[in-house]
Design goal:
transmembrane helix; transmembrane; ABC transporter permease; 0% strand; 12 helices
């Protein structure tokens, strides 16, 4: 049954906007990463160096912003058409509807990560970066970033369910994204800031920020926030009279 709702949510998405968001975020990040002429850091191959530069702005700014846009778009159809009342009259638990939207959000983030990696490999190849492509580093970083974006995605999906306006959750997300710069300055505190978690999870282990991150604590923080945000939203959905 959940699978049917996932297909429905997938088909309702405004794909022209989705494709634009998926392409623009990674494209700007890669333009920054490859556009600044720099020499590889000590002990790093060109692939590793350009990857760390590219994912810096991508994971710190663009991934959180993209997550918020996807969450808002997933709820936009129901808000515009007044479809929540009709949707919740169906003989299925409201949790199924929420879960289907959450899964689609994760799939969109996964697609964004894949586009970023494909773009990076393509540009790096044309640029003639030397050495073997460290696939293990790239895949680990992108999957870690995806998992670390789960709490933020869960929170923003709940926020998008609360507010009918598309602009409200978008502006709130932007406002909370900016302090990530301060939060990542102290990784031990940044671990507990949802907007900073993707950055701390994606940065290579030899990076100064990642070197101060305890993977176990970050994992606990991610799982804790997912649980808190998801159960809070489900409780609100169950109690709200649409």
């Amino acid at each position: 049954m959940v699978l049917n709702y996932i297909k429905t949510e997938w088909n309702k998405l405004p794909w022209m906007i989705i494709f634009a968001v998926i392409l623009i975020g990674p494209a700007v990040s890669l333009w920054i990463g490859f556009g600044v002429p720099t020499k590889a850091g000590e002990g790093l191959t060109p692939w590793q160096w350009y990857f760390s530069i590219s994912i810096h702005k991508y994971s710190l700014f663009f991934l959180p912003i993209v997550t918020g846009i996807f969450a808002a778009l997933l709820c936009r159809f129901e808000h515009l058409s007044g479809g929540w009342k009709r949707l919740f009259t169906f003989p299925v638990p409201r949790s199924f509807i929420y879960l289907s939207k959450w899964i689609v959000l994760i799939l969109l983030l996964l697609l964004t990560q894949i586009v970023f990696l494909a773009g990076f490999i393509t540009i790096g190849t044309f640029k003639g970066l030397e050495g073997l492509i460290p696939w293990d580093l790239f895949v680990k970083s992108l999957l870690s970033g995806l998992a670390a974006a789960f709490p933020l995605g869960t929170l923003l999906l709940g926020v998008s369910l609360f507010w009918k306006s598309f602009a409200t959750p978008f502006v709130l997300n932007m406002l909370f994204t900016v302090p990530s710069i301060i939060a990542t300055g102290s990784p031990r505190l940044g671990i507990w800031y949802p907007w900073a978690q993707p950055f701390l999870a994606m940065m290579p282990e030899n990076h100064q920020w990642a070197a101060s991150v305890d993977p176990l604590v970050l994992t606990v923080a991610v799982m804790l926030y997912i649980s808190v945000f998801a159960f809070s939203t489900l409780y609100w959905l169950a109690k709200t009279d649409w």
